[in-house]
Design brief:
alpha/beta, Rossmann fold, 5 strands, 8% strand, disordered N terminus
Length: 318
Amino acid sequence: MTNESGDIPRDYAEISSKIERSFADLSPQLRQAARYVLDRPDEVALQSMRRLATGAGVKPATMVRLAKALDYPGFEAFREPFRNRLRRPAGNYSKRARALQARGGAHERHAALLAEMVAVDQDNLRQTFDTVGAGPLSASTDILADARRLHVIGLRSCYPVAFYFQYACRIFRTDVDLLDGRGGTLMDGLRGIGETDAMVAVSFAPYTRDTVQVVKYAAGRGARVVAITDSPVSPLAAVANQALIVANSSPSLFQSLVPAMAVAQALVALLMARAGKTALAAVGESETLLHDFHAYWEETVPWTARIKAGTARPEDAS
């Protein structure tokens, strides 16, 4: 079963479509393997055939048989479209916007679209924390906790994740800088960065050029990097000391930030958990400062309501 040019499919969309068309004709074991590779395309691209077969609950030879059943000469050739998928940037925004309008314009379709977004993010979170478990998160915490200074970067759609991480850490650490480039000063924040520093960087395909350049510069100066990104072959993961790979599929206009935000929240919690008495004192100081500046809305009870409640007397008004 070859494509119109006579070649085996080199594109992920082609091979996934081919598997779906051939599924009914496959043996039960091949169906089991095929279902697994369709559900976990990143693993097909990155894991060994033996580990992939273990995950699918089949023998390694079954993976070879699946490749040959789909007209590939061997498993490595079969794997190539899945690797190509990781190398390519995400679909353009115009295409995603048109797809949204095509499926979600009518009111009766809104519920289905919203239900899909919830289901996709639930799966994103499951996949993310299957990969980013206690081990990678603890290793990342070690890197960040031991740093003299923390630098945080996440630009464009990833800015909310970076801002949250820096904002939350500043409650108990004063040595956390957000590199956001205000006034054209992005590179200025890198002055003096070195081996005693660490960086948290957030970026998904298509990767923001400034983020990639900043991460490469920091790593080149010896700073340790924790990357929150979408692929083990992303330009951030290539230079990071610890890459936290998140699933970010979404039918919406941008990739989902939910898993990345969850990972950022987990890092903040782990950093606070091991920060000690100095951090507790800093949290207390932060609370006092917020209280003194009346940072949060305080509901005031009307005077007449207080009189009725018996907490005030009319003569007190004078």
